[in-house]
Amino acid sequence: MRAHHLPPAQLEQALSVVGLERSKRHPSLHKRALPEGQAARSWIKGTVSPIMDDMTLFLLLSALAWAADDVDALARAAVDANPGLAAMEARTAALAAAAEVADVWPDPVASVELSNLPLGGFTLSDHPMAGVQLRVQQPLPAPGERARRSEVAELSVEYAALQQSAAALDLRHRVIDTWWRLALTRMLAGITEVELARLDELAETVQARYRVDAVGQHAVLRVTLLRDRLSDELGDFARADQQLTAALSAALSAPRAFETPDAVEPLPLTGTVEGWLAAAEAQHPALEALRVEARQARARAELARVQARPSMSLWAGYRARTWPDDGGVDLVSGGVAVPVPVGSRARSQGLQAAAEQDARAAEDRLAAALDTLRAELTTLHAAWDRAFAKAGTYRDTLLPAAQAVREATLADFQVGRADFAAVYQAEVELLALERAERIAAVETHLRAAELEALIATR
User: Fold this and answer.
1) Residue 310 region, left (φ>0) first, then alpha (ψ -120 to 50), else beta?
2) Per-residue pLDDT of the chain (458 residues; tens, 9 = 90+)
3) What are the CA-CA distances from residue 285 to residues 100, 166, 294, 444, 456 (Å)?
4) What is the pTM of this model?
């Protein structure tokens, strides 16, 4: 555990958990105030470690857990605060506003003209054909055009909303994945701290044996080297902690501290690959977006086909005589305008072909995505199953055995019945098993987060 995560109140609670509550039974604990900050590790090694065995020391540091963050709440907060998702939401709203007016009629056209003026002067005259003409023209959409426009616009809104949901799901997974990796980094740092405390004890034993010529100088140097190397690894863990914390803060759009547990129970595997795949096909927004993209492309093809039909315009006019006493009369007129489809048909056929190709491309991408998804789910299933089994085996069998080997070898070494190489190997194997058990346990949570992202259970 990182030293700055050892406040006195948590030390007090953890000591109680492992049966070392401050009492007159342990005067060194009773008389002194519990430390905090960087002094915590030294205090544990100097005061607590001599009155407990190594397993109890490990349990003590494992009990020093605080109320960890609610990672689900962090993920929700990241989704709510992300400006990229806000921009996508605004884009979806803009498309929705446009879709509401996609089927409106085209505007009528009104015109006013002074008709039949004499060339000698642009003034109204008493000529029977002279007058002021008013005209209104209304373009008529092709049959079905408004419905197709509305369909294309609505599918654009649906596609944008699904893309937003997929992006939110991806962000959620990144936050949860990063948080668990931060937790694992701190757990490994904590295990390293415990190992350094054990190595301090081993170094004292080796020094004592060296002083009586029971071991060579190489033993002292190897213990020192291992201790220095592990101390240096704490710097790597600290750097990783800073990087992961920065990534989480960026996802939340605000710098903050994060609290993670010191130990976790592995999550058992639930579900099958086929069940997961069926769930993903039914509800994953990225897959549904590909289906909508194909539907939208076919709607665009249908719109192009409809627009190839001649689009008529109706018009009506009224011509008023300026001088009604000259014997002229007011006139009305009306008509129909129909375009001649010289190039529109070929243009429509090209647009239809392009839209059909877009639809087939979206369907092919969907098929490829499903193949990739099946492979990812199969890999995830195998990895999760193995991680859970490994965590249980290490926790229940290998770690207790390694702890027993370490204690027995150290006891034999102290009385000359085991050589230093055996003690060193037992120490290194115990550290490796402790790290492997924690990595396997956290991996089950990482796999669960990956599954959530792959099948969109949130």
Assistant:
1) beta
2) 333 344 444 445 544 544 444 343 344 444 344 444 334 444 454 554 444 455 455 455 444 444 567 899 999 999 999 999 999 999 999 999 999 988 888 888 888 877 666 666 656 666 666 677 888 988 888 888 889 999 999 999 999 999 999 999 999 999 999 999 999 999 999 999 999 999 999 999 999 999 988 889 999 999 999 999 999 999 999 999 999 999 999 999 888 899 999 899 999 999 999 999 999 999 999 999 999 999 999 999 998 888 877 778 888 888 776 555 555 677 788 888 887 777 777 888 898 899 999 999 999 999 999 999 999 999 999 999 999 999 999 999 999 999 999 999 999 999 889 999 999 999 999 999 999 999 999 999 999 999 999 999 87
3) 23, 5, 14, 25, 8
4) 0.77
Q: Is residue 331 part of a domain?
A: no
Structure tokens at 395: 């926790």
Per DSSP, helices labelled H in 18-70 are 27-30, 39-43, 54-63
Closest to 71 measured CA to CA, from 258, 319, 337, 241: 258
Non-local (6+) Cβ contacts of 443 within 8 A are: 383, 384, 387, 391
Residue 139: beta bridge partners?
A: 313
Q: Are residues 378 and 394 in the same domain?
A: yes
Distance CA 142, CA 163 (A): 32
Q: Are residues 247 and 193 in the same domain?
A: yes
Strand ordering across the sheet containing 331-337? 109-115, 131-139, 313-320, 331-337
SS3 131: strand
Q: Which domain holds residue 44?
A: 1-66
Same domain, 252 and 357: yes
Name the packing angle between helices 344-393 and 285-307 (round to 10°): 170
**Tokens linked to 3:** 């030293």
Task: Round to whole Å and give the CA distance between 342 and 334.
Answer: 25
Place of tokens 């193995």: 386
